[in-house]
Amino acid sequence: MEKANLLDYLPTSKKEVELRGWSELDVILFTGDAYVDHPSFGAAVIGRTLEATGMKVAIVPQPNWQDDLRDFKKLGRPRYFFAVSPGAMDSMVNHYTAARRRRSDDAYTPGGRSGARPDMPSIVYTKILKKLFPDVPVVLGGIEASLRRTTHYDYWEDRLRPSILVESGADLLVYGMGELPLTDIAKLLQRGVPFSSLRNIPQIGFLQPIDEPLPKQKHWETLELHSHEECLRNKVAHAENFKHVEEESNRKHGARLTQQVSETERLVLNPMYPPMSEAQVDASFDLPYTHLPHPRYAGKGDIPAYEMIKFSICLHRGCFGGCSFCTISAHQGKFIASRSERSVMKEVQKVVKLPGFKGYLSDLGGPSANMYGMRGRDEKLCEVCRRPSCIFPSVCKNMNTDHTRLINLYKAVDALPEVKKSFIGSGVRYDILMNDNATPEEARSHKLYTEELIAHHVSGRLKVAPEHTSKAVLDIMRKPSFELFYKFKKEFDEINCKYKLNQQIIPYFISSHPGCHDVDMAELAAETCALDFKLEQVQDFTPTPMTVSTTIYYTGVHPYTLKPVYTAHTPDEKKRQRMFFFWYKPEERQRIQMALRAMNRRDIEERLFSQKINNYESSKPKQEFRQPEKPKPQKDFGAKKFYGNSNYGKHEKRRKW
Fold first, then answer.
1. pLDDT above 50: residue 350
2. What phi and psi values does residue 102 have, to the nearest 5 degrees?
3. Which helix (H) or strand (E) element contains residue 223?
4. Do residues 354 and 433 touch, judged by C-beta distance below 8 A?
5. Is 4 a residue whose pLDDT tops 50?
6. Which domain holds residue 520?
């Protein structure tokens, strides 16, 4: 590999550091992912952000933690601190299925091979660094730092764990999107401020002795959570804690949180920065990424997560949906931080020049497809709002849901001569498009957007996520009534007919979610059967830290009402619920019939297994999950995985990557 090519990336080895003429590094970043120099991969974003402050930064991707630890020693001691990130996904989601079975692949490793990172790399890497360099500070960041910043339930170990700061021994934690806090940290350190004095920066966490006073900050409220020991004794205390953490995370000006974690120490979590401005988001996406994996991976196989997103564009961060099972808002925040059209077009111009680009953009999206540029009409109302969702139980009357800006951006991208077609791979929130509180202008934009989307940006299949059909379950999920899905599907079919298109709508569903009983899954099977769906895009609920649904799963009560909620826990209970997805498979029919008869629901059995339904293949064709005729672009999972990721609350197709 030529020297010039290596110099286009952040260095990953001693040789690459020497090529730059550096004798010392300021920050060394260890990550559980392969190094892909792309704005959808957290290590690249943080590395480039620190580089932009003038710091000399290197990345050590997927270090070997099982040998003589040479990967941890090879670049020596940094001037300021080590940074540690687990990668774009929580490692336990990356490694294990909802049934706690070990996965055989890793989408963030060349060749998709497994075993390149440990469980909980944030803890493992930090402990190694502290043993080798005990006097060098370690800063934790990324998805594990965000979702495990306070006492949290770990599904894979089936226990409450303390803040990841306690278990890792790190000196500082940065939660959420890290550009703003790390920029301030870098600037203060460069000005000579001691690391131990970094206590008043927003969006950080640290441990301090209980007998020490809290750092002075006159504009911050302080809210004390139940101690870790109290949470271990009392599940309701943990539920109450979660409510406070979620509410303060969703405020524009939240409170500082404290929690006693031992007899002598407390955890301090400073409030988040206000949402990033358009200029700040642009500055992050405009950093000099190559949009390519590091040359060190040449000949080692494709990195599946990169292959999925390399021809996609992320338009915004944040999600105001507030779904109970999703961690996006816990990591990115509730408020939407959008890029400018200029920044988006600049990245598109880079992407169309990448090797292998054939004219198709796989996604113009983000955590949700259609939240770009949206905010409150009167932002003073947003300043004091504590709602976890801006669209549940109904769309906030203060929310401006006009899609005109997004439509214009789609058209500007499609007008480029290098772009044959741009697809929308991110999930569409049809509840925004069916908004009864919309102004006439917004309602017109919703109609225009729906037609633009379906007529010009669907690659054969449109992903939407009704998640369930039961109103009781949907209410717990913070999702709209299934009636809205019927309305949206009707529009989808009408537009397909108008443009003579043969496209499919692909619904996503979850089984075993808190509040879901066997009969709810049976009703789901009957309703989707009547709609001619043979479901494949399904997921068994996976409890992940820092969600309402996980809190219910562990505590048995809803954190906002403290009322009991049933949840399927045992493997048999989960398997029984999941089987209803596959009513159309002969091997499941007898088990489903037995279950329905035990429930005394012969009516559902008739709806599923009547002669009419049994002979559906000889009547009108059903929606089959066949390959569309058009060239199918790669799915955009990568941006979501970095930004909150992605398997969090989203859906895992029943096949390998």
1. yes
2. -70, 130
3. strand 222-224
4. no
5. no
6. 500-627
**Helices first, then strands: H and E counts in the chain:** 28, 24
> What does the pLDDT look like over 525-574, one tens digit per residue?
999 999 999 988 899 999 999 999 999 999 999 999 999 999 999 999 99
Q: Helix, strand, or coil here: 298?
A: coil
How many domains does one find in the chain? 2
pLDDT number for residue 537: 85
Full-model pTM: 0.91
Q: Considering the domain boundaries, does residue 73 fall inside one? A: yes
Contact 469, 317 (CB under 8 A): no
E strands present in 248-348: 256-260, 265-269, 292-293, 312-314, 316-317, 337-338
Q: Is 25 exposed, middle or buried (0-12, 13-18, 19+ CB in 10 A)?
A: buried
Specify whether the CB–CB gap between 79 and 25 falls below 8 A: yes
Residues 6+ apart with CB under 8 A from 320: 329, 334, 335, 336, 371, 374, 389, 390, 391, 399
What mean pLDDT comes out for the span 406-413? Answer: 98
**Single residue among 234, 269, 304 that ends a domain in this structure:** 269
The first and second tokens of residue 181, run together, are 């806090």
Tokens 């409220």 map to which residue? Answer: 221
Contact of 125 with 70, CB cutoff 8 Å: no
- 46-87 pLDDT, tens digit each: 999 999 999 999 999 999 999 999 999 999 999 999 999 999
Which of 269, 292, 315 finishes a domain? 269
